[in-house]
Design goal:
This protein is an alpha+beta fold and 565 residues long. It is 57% helix and 14% strand. Strands 8-7-6-5-9 form a 5-stranded antiparallel sheet. The chain has a 4-stranded antiparallel sheet with strand order 1-2-3-4, with helices on one face. The protein has a 3-stranded antiparallel sheet with strand order 10-12-11. The longest helix is centred in the N-terminal third of the chain and has 72 residues, at 120-191.
């Protein structure tokens, strides 16, 4: 038994006694101290409970005594007080910058340089979540502490149960030894054995009776100790169940609080969307309205600029030409300004939604550099368009010819010109592709006439008729304003196969030469019909040689028949 006790004491003796009144999850058992030839088993978590001390003497006999654990309490009080464990931080506190301190502004606001007060509801929710998480952590630590104490107590009960079994066997052995000695004494007395021998047996029986008493006392003490430990285990189990219930409730509260924080931090939750609309919606609407207002003002300013330039002090130029140039410049101006306004509005909206536009601007600069190297033809188009506008080579409503394409200038941008021909086809001509431009309505125009008359007509009379018709057209109320200068006779231009060609011209306003020419041709046809002036159609006269020979008369005269084809 002594050897078993020493082995158990060596197994359960810790390296150092703990100073905490509550057993933590890391502690394995309470102190089981040895000293002075005594092996003392101390139950964990019961400082005031009686302990069983076994004393081994020279004779190998054991005596059971009970003692209080006041020495253990004094040692625990004399030990330095353990430092209070720091309150564990919740996962939410660990994620927050500054070791759990709430930020004053979001990172997006800091990047944008804005000073924004934190959301009070979110701050309160974060505080509540932190407190709930701390309480849940404390409750969980309490559960773990109780679990550790229960495990330690169960580990301590196991050797006590073994000691109880040993005490029972010891008491049984002592009782059997006493019974055997009593039987021997009875036999010796019946057999008439010597008194000395009987006396020796009585002494041994008395000693056996003493051992029985000691074993019974030890057994009673061990039963009491085991009962106390089991009662303490039952109390700890009840506390453990209550702590588990509390920990679960605290964990549910922490989860609810964290869910509330996640809902408040989620930018797409209905509450945050509504709050975002209330905070940023009016500003975004204001930016959009301001952008639309500026675009409208740009359109209005375009019309005003055209009117001012057309009516300004440009006396040497015609009003129509000035107006066309003004429309061209105003259109380009409106395109550039509209682009700048739209880009500015988009950047302001991005800043309002807390998007850092500095990387966007840097990316735009890099993209512009890449475009400058990779799209040189585009840069050429813009530069050529700027030169065209600067030199006023043509403007809107001019009729021009670019290469083999002719039409009315419908629109001009810095990159291209849009031409509309008589069939309604729109031709988009990049400025970088323009080599030669023929402007048929630059400043003024001219209606050129090639009038063919028969060879039999007197050309001086025909030229006078044409000049009179030109003067009448210049005095006409409808066509007179379209003519800048009366008809200029150039004279006989050439002899054709069947007509004499007379050329003259009339100077008109831009774009009016075709209307003047059509009206003048109409009047020429009517006047020639009235005066009998022949406008010949192409014909040819053929002479046949056999008819010529048959038609020779005696006097040598020949009449040549002619046939027209």
């Amino acid at each position: 038994l002594a050897q078993d006790r020493e082995a158990l004491a060596r197994l359960w003796t810790p390296d150092a006694p703990t100073s905490r009144p509550v057993v933590s999850t890391d502690s394995a058992a309470e102190a089981i101290t040895t000293g002075g030839g005594q092996d003392t088993a101390v139950a964990p978590g019961a400082a005031s409970a009686p302990v069983v001390t076994a004393t081994t003497g020279s004779s190998g006999e054991a005596k059971g005594t009970s003692a209080s654990a006041e020495g253990g309490e004094a040692a625990a009080q004399a030990a330095p007080a353990a430092e209070p464990a720091a309150a564990p931080k919740s996962p939410l506190q660990m994620l927050l910058p500054g070791g759990g301190a709430l930020p004053a502004a979001s990172s997006a606001d800091e990047r944008a340089g804005a000073v924004k007060a934190p959301d009070k509801e979110l701050v309160e929710a974060q505080k509540t979540a932190s407190a709930a998480q701390a309480q849940a952590s404390e409750a969980q630590q309490e559960v773990e502490s109780l679990s550790g104490r229960i495990a330690t107590l169960r580990s301590a009960i196991k050797p006590e149960q073994e000691l109880l079994s040993t005490a029972r066997r010891k008491a049984t052995n002592a009782q059997q030894t006493h019974n055997v000695l009593r039987d021997q004494i009875d036999k010796k007395i019946q057999a008439g054995a010597p008194v000395e021998e009987i006396h020796d047996l009585w002494n041994r029986a008395d000693e056996a009776a003493g051992r029985v008493n000691v074993a019974e006392l030890e057994l009673i003490g061990q039963v009491d100790r085991l009962s106390e430990l089991q009662a303490e285990l039952a109390d700890l189990q009840a506390e453990h169940i209550a702590a588990l219930t509390e920990a679960r409730a605290r964990q549910v509260e922490a989860e609810v609080a964290e869910k509330r924080v996640r809902d408040l931090e989620n930018p797409f939750s209905p509450r945050n969307l509504l709050q975002w609309l209330l905070n940023h919606g009016p500003r975004i609407v204001t930016i959009l309205l301001a952008t639309l207002a500026l675009l409208w003002l740009t359109r209005v300013a375009e019309g005003r600029i055209v009117a001012v330039i057309a009516a300004g002090g440009l006396g040497r130029k015609e009003r129509t030409e000035c107006e066309a140039r003004a429309k061209t410049l105003a259109s380009v101006f409106r395109n550039v300004v509209s682009t700048a306004i739209i880009v500015g509005g988009i950047l302001n909206i991005l800043m309002e939604v807390n998007i850092n536009i500095v990387p966007l601007l840097g990316g735009a600069a890099v993209a512009g550099l890449a475009v400058a190297f990779g799209a040189q033809s585009l840069i050429k188009d813009y530069f050529s368009g700027f030169i065209i506008l600067l030199e006023n080579q043509y403007s809107i409503n001019n009729v021009i010819k670019i290469g083999d394409t002719a039409g009315l200038v419908e629109r001009i941008t810095l990159r291209m010109t849009v031409l509309r021909d008589l069939e309604g086809n729109a031709h988009f001509v990049p400025h970088g592709e323009i080599k030669t431009v023929t402007n048929m309505t630059h400043g003024w125009s001219r209606a050129l006439f090639d009038i063919g008359v028969a060879y039999k007509e007197q050309v001086d009379r025909v030229m006078q008729v044409l000049m009179d018709l030109g003067d009448e057209l210049a005095r006409d109320s409808d066509f007179g304003p379209l003519i800048l200068q009366g008809p200029e006779m150039l004279g006989v231009d050439k002899f054709g196969d069947s007509a004499v060609v007379i050329k003259f011209m009339i100077k008109t306003r831009p774009l009016q030469q075709w209307a003047v020419k059509r009206e003048m041709l109409r009047r020429i046809k009517n006047r020639f019909d009235e005066l009998g002036i022949e406008i010949p159609f192409p014909h040819r006269t053929l002479y046949h040689r056999h008819e010529r020979e048959a038609a020779i008369e005696p006097d040598g005269l020949v009449e040549m028949p002619s046939g027209r084809m």
